[in-house]
């Protein structure tokens, strides 16, 4: 029962922290870390013991799967060059540079373990950046950070596992590691794509036979990232990349016909799951902070001087990570410009500025994946305690906190004076999509031949077709290219939505009255209320 109570308390804190984050001008991860630390204060004394392997298995697959699902694929492909240089090149650059620096700064940490720490400090968290910047970052930069966060989760954690294996076995060969890295990565991607495709085919087969219960299909989606992770690990491939690939593949398979209800439920469930898991990870970081600090200073005679020196070590490592990232971003952009001129393509349309480089540098916030990875470090190595495990967790936790605080201070300053320009291209694509789909619907209705049994049904069918076609013609007016026509159509649309909303609310009040007077049962109440709620949700926000 104690475990159940702890889980319920943590989930309640995740929800409360979201409300507190709206009042306090701090990013949500910092609020959640503070709440966890407060809960672990000696007077409250909540303690959570974490199994590293269980922590890695429970939290990482669904988060990586969700990131792969949500990533805009077209933008990812267009920015594949910068994203890959950040997600793969920068990770390796960070592992080598920061790894040697950590070993030089803290000789008690063996070099392979220092490389492992540098690798687990490489993954970034685009969700935290979006929360801090309040979606004011230029769209290309935000897409680059999202793509980098998606890919370097995999590359950083795979490199982390290789470095850990080298630390445990004491054997490392660059040639063998490079070949194994490619095989493990390709194998993980193949397993994730294949398993996701098989699940999609299974769902399509079930839907074709009328087995389209949304809850059943959502359960399949919830189990898919764990299945992809476990299967890939059993086959000796990367479970991390397998979960990412399964999510990216599933975003294409999500367009199966006859599953509108499943998609609505699936998105709601995954939004809830992602919010809860991200919040739990940062709460657990806060809960572990007192134990981490005690473990780091437990072998020292003096408390505060030792803690101060360790904090200075964290600051030094964080600054080195920032410098390495800035150097890499500047160098790659300059090299890209030279290559474009050498190939005769001229200068880049959007020439990177110093502000853009600093936005990308400060935007490399560490988050949930870094914490999940470092907490998965084994307790023992060859029967002995893993070298400086507590110090590794302390450094990772400190870097996460510093990166969040630095982003909170620097991003608003860097974004000062920048008004996010409207995405005219996206708006144009939205208008084209609505216009073309409305034209297709009108054409389908025009060619539809109804064979009623009598003249009365024929007249009714013609009236219904005209009514539906008028709604689609109204859509065409709304998305007309003429500004005057759009303004008039939007005014009419707003008035119509207000009237429909008023009518829906009157229906709901009458429904409650019927229930209070026991004229309808609870099952009828739930069914009709669900339809009314869905209709109101479809209206969107009405001002």
UniProtKB/TrEMBL annotation:
Keyword Repeat among record annotations: no
Highest taxon of the lineage: Bacteria
Keywords for this protein: Antiport, Cell inner membrane, Cell membrane, Ion transport, Membrane, Sodium, Sodium transport, Transmembrane, Transmembrane helix, Transport
One GO CC annotation: plasma membrane
Domain Cation/H+ exchanger transmembrane span(s) in chain numbering: 13-416
Biological process annotations from GO: regulation of intracellular pH; sodium ion import across plasma membrane
Gene Ontology molecular functions: potassium:proton antiporter activity; sodium:proton antiporter activity
Cited Pfam families: Na_H_Exchanger
Stored InterPro entries: Cation/H_exchanger_CPA1 (IPR018422), Cation/H_exchanger_CPA1_bac (IPR004705), Cation/H_exchanger_TM (IPR006153), Na+/solute_symporter_sf (IPR038770)
Subcellular location: Cell inner membrane; Cell membrane
The keyword Thylakoid is annotated on this UniProt entry: no
Primary location group: membrane
Membrane topology term: Multi-pass membrane protein
Transmembrane regions listed in the UniProt entry: 35-60, 81-103, 109-133, 154-175, 181-202, 268-287, 307-336, 357-379, 391-415
Biological role stated in the UniProt entry: Na(+)/H(+) antiporter that extrudes sodium in exchange for external protons.
Protein family: Belongs to the monovalent cation:proton antiporter 1 (CPA1) transporter (TC 2.A.36) family.
Official protein name in the record: Sodium/proton antiporter, CPA1 family
